[in-house]
Design goal:
The chain has ten helices and seven strands. By secondary structure, it is of the alpha/beta class. The protein has a single domain, classed as Vaccinia Virus protein VP39 (Rossmann fold), CATH 3.40.50.150. It has a seven-stranded mixed β-sheet with strand order 3-2-1-4-5-7-6. 46% of the residues are buried. About 6% of the residues have low confidence.
Length: 280
């Protein structure tokens, strides 16, 4: 099995476990990933409970931001949520898009799709649908989406270039995305980056913030903006486990670190040619 496919399988297995746990258990463990003694997910989580469209059955305590806050979703928009889980962000997006809009949730985990569809049925929504698929090869037509959102998922995708290239493909000209994700600043030690449990959670699949923005730009997007950034503060026992004293000092001084960010970018209205087509 190729490395990328192996990593996807790890993520799929862990998020199957997460889907079978309560929100409280997920919030009390590293990104919901069982009993790995690493990051407490509460340092990432945001409070959705006061948002219109919020449904507690769809909230598994995952995510590292609230991308719908910045996504500029308008009435009648078609919205795509990448890594939609049990539907939490989809239902908030549906409130913004209204009954004339449409929301599509994309996830690669069977039980997440099942949970999301059950939640949509309970709510009686006929304009929210959930599809099984890979973010690196989306089962979505080109130039068909007004707004793409995602919440702490793209860092788990092995090939981020493909993920953003696919995001570009499915967006309409002039469409845009707003995604919350985890990025790094400075080099974290291999002991942390290579921990498979952390990868299936939130941190070790993340890349440098500058590299993340560079991939977005290379994919053809414009108007790239970091809409929100939050330092992820790790407890001393975690820093002691993974970092030397010198590295710990750099972490505390902000020279290296982990951040949750929400990033916006737009697909240009008109282009001479599609990026990567060879015509430019």
């Amino acid at each position: 099995m190729e490395k990328g496919e192996k990593l996807k399988e790890i993520v799929r297995e862990k998020y199957t476990d997460i889907a079978n746990q309560s929100k409280e258990v997920n919030e009390a463990s590293c990104c919901g990933a069982g009993d790995c003694c690493t990051v407490d997910y509460a340092v990432f989580a945001e409070d959705y409970s006061k948002l219109k469209g919020y449904n507690s059955d769809a909230d598994l305590g995952l995510g590292c931001g609230i991308p719908t806050e910045f996504a500029q979703i308008k009435e009648g928009n078609t919205v795509l949520d990448l890594g939609s889980g049990a539907g939490n962000d989809c239902f908030v997006a549906r409130e913004l898009a209204g009954p004339t809009g449409k929301v599509i949730g994309l996830d690669m985990t069977d039980i997440m799709i099942e949970k999301a569809r059950l939640n949509a049925d309970k709510l009686g929504f006929n304009n929210v649908e959930f599809r099984k698929g890979d973010i690196e090869q989306m089962p979505i037509g080109g130039n068909s989406i007004d707004v793409v959102i995602s919440n702490c998922v793209l860092n788990l995708v092995p090939n981020k270039e493909k993920a953003f290239s696919e995001t570009y493909r499915v967006l309409k000209p002039g469409g845009h995305f707003s995604v919350s994700d985890v990025v790094l600043k400075g080099e974290l030690p291999d002991a942390l980056k290579n921990d498979a449990e952390m990868y299936a959670g939130c941190v070790s699949g993340a890349i440098q913030g500058d590299d993340y923005l560079a991939i977005i730009q290379k994919s053809g997007f414009s108007e790239i903006t970091v809409q929100k950034q939050k330092v992820v503060n790790l407890p001393d026992e975690i820093l002691d486990r993974y970092l030397t004293d010198a590295e710990k000092l750099k972490f505390q001084n902000g020279e290296i670190g982990i951040f949750s960010v929400t990033v916006y970018a737009q697909k240009p209205e008109t282009m001479a040619c599609e990026p990567g087509s060879g015509c430019c």
